[in-house]
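Cast an eye over this sequence plus tokens and walk me through the fold:

***
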Amino acid sequence: MKTAIVTASYHADFERFRLLCETLDTHVTGYTKHYVLVEDRDVPLFRQLQSPQRVIIGEKDLLPSWLKVFPDPLTMGRRRIWLSFKTKPLRGWHVQQFRRIAIADLVEDDAFLYLDSDVAFLRPYDCSQLWRDDTLRLLVRPGALAADSMGEHRRWSANAGALLGLPETQHSTNDYVGTMIAWKRSSIRDMCARIESVTGEHWIAAMGKQRCFSECMMYGRFVDDVEHGAGHFHDQTELCKVFWLAPPPTEDEFRAFVADMAPEQVALGMQSFLGLEPGEIRRILGL
């Protein structure tokens, strides 16, 4: 089975992405290509890191022409906003999710392993480990949405259920959001077809009108609640140890966080909004 790696990124994360590429090239095997999905204006910047195995793709090759990007006047142009007559106004984090889904229409690998720009590999990993014969690993945390702190995730799950045409009474407490997750290309395409059948709209238009969504929750609920798990096996293993919440760690806390990685964890994720500079991460990790 062929597996590609996919990263959706943007210019502010370029140095973090460079660190991802260096550590990925050192430690990761068993994949065909690394596809990097960026806004069109960021293509020249990211092409500095293009290689025979790393392909930079602008969103004009991924997204419909009716979704247009503009400088956001409310931020004096510092941020971007995506507008169309078919959706609500969208931010970059919405559109990065669209790119991650849309890659399934552009390339023909059997599956995609999704990596964020702020991930760094510290140990070897072979992408063939995502597979058991022709079934693919699906990261799931059973019952996680029952926690009081998971209100936003419950909303994403409910909105996914509505877009997939599931009964309002069919709730799920499974959480599918994570780092180093894998999706089947065939299931992505079937998921989009299902959304379009239910809503009568292009899947981007349907999701963009809702605006509050998680692509991870959408895929997980489609696989488990529509496909009834076909072609997948559940796995609760967190392959990437992620520091999710502010404030950023001190250097001692960072070193302790790394030292506490479980044996099965092969990568580290330091959320970019924490404000840790890539150079500081390199220094602490000795990279």
